[in-house]
Amino acid sequence: xxxxxxxxxxxxxxxxxxTHCRDVVAxxxxxxxxxxxxxxxxxxxxxxxxxxxxxxxxxxxxxxxLVIPSKxxxxxxxxxxxxQLEQQLAQMVPxxxxxxxxxxxxxxxxxxxxxxxxxxxxxxxxxxxAGPQVDVILNHPKAKLVANALGTPPEDVVKRIQDSGRVIGxxxxxxxxxxxxxxxxxxxxxxxxxxxxxxxxEVSSLVLWPQVIEAIGDTPVLAAGGIGNGAQVAAALAMxxxxxxxxxxxxxxxxxxxxxxxxxxxxEATSHDTIRSRSWTGKPCRMLRxxxxxxxxxxxxxxxxxxxxxxxxxxxxxxxxxxxxxAAKDVNFNPVGQVVGxxxxxxxxxxxxxRLVEEYVTAYDRLTKLNG
Length: 372
Known about the structure:
Elements: H1 4-9, E1 15-19, H2 22-30, E2 34-38, H3 44-57, E3 62-66, H4 82-90, H5 95-107, H6 127-137, E4 143-148, H7 155-163, E5 167-172, H8 175-183, E6 188-192, E7 198-199, H9 205-216, E8 221-224, H10 230-238, E9 243-246, H11 260-268, E10 274-277, E11 285-288, H12 291-297, H13 309-323, H14 349-370
Parallel strand pairs: 1-2, 1-9, 2-3, 3-4, 4-5, 5-6, 6-8, 8-9
Antiparallel strand pairs: 7-11, 10-11
């Protein structure tokens, strides 16, 4: 099951696990895969705490995922601190959008956050806010892989990461974007079909993976979007992928920092229950459909704003939903792919890695027998 990219990174299995939970990152990396921590929800100070913990609990290496979109409101603004950029962007958010978001939460009885639980509205959705996160990453030698979730990373970020001896790549949902990543000299490309959770394009994995693999030649491709078992990993490697990039699977593991009520929502959902919506982040993002997504789809209501303005409107809903998951059951932010229909039980992260490997071997043996 080892690929050249495994050899380059020094990991046992080409299984990459994107998650916002450090416990999952550690469990997957220690089981032979590579856990990748989503940094978008952390300030630089918070990210330092997370990576310091990972340094102590990961035996080998781990990765970090940034979000620096190719296009967003406020791009190109120079000389501002993250706090100043947040203040500037906040002035671009119509009060009507804020009022509408608050009404949805109030109508569903989701309590406001307690006094003292203030949070920033602008997270790592810009180059300005991601810059300090890069500084933190470079202080942690075990953080050997960096991925950018939206678009080709800025040239200076690519250079800093590569000059430090780390590898950097980016996600894409089209051949065009994959070619942009290759032209920028990225070390790998994550190709995500529309089945995937979070930000995704419109082309299915089975169609998109081989197109990109052929188009970018010797640049390693990690296949993403809809992977829930080892047979799908085998299919991806058979097409020429260097590994499997998984995300949704790790929402229903024991180590996941997902409240029980939200976990139940994932476990009960089917593959027909997801939708691509701009209602939380401002860009098309696959998640579970609910009253929040329906409200923003209604043509009589405000249209979602561009990134990162929509998340500045919606972030209070994310925070309140995480704190009060029972009350927010019908309006919570539940990013997940169509593979949610295969996520029917809670497993330990290490057991998921082992299961993927065993299922891969079974699929490989099945194909070998077909060759006589």
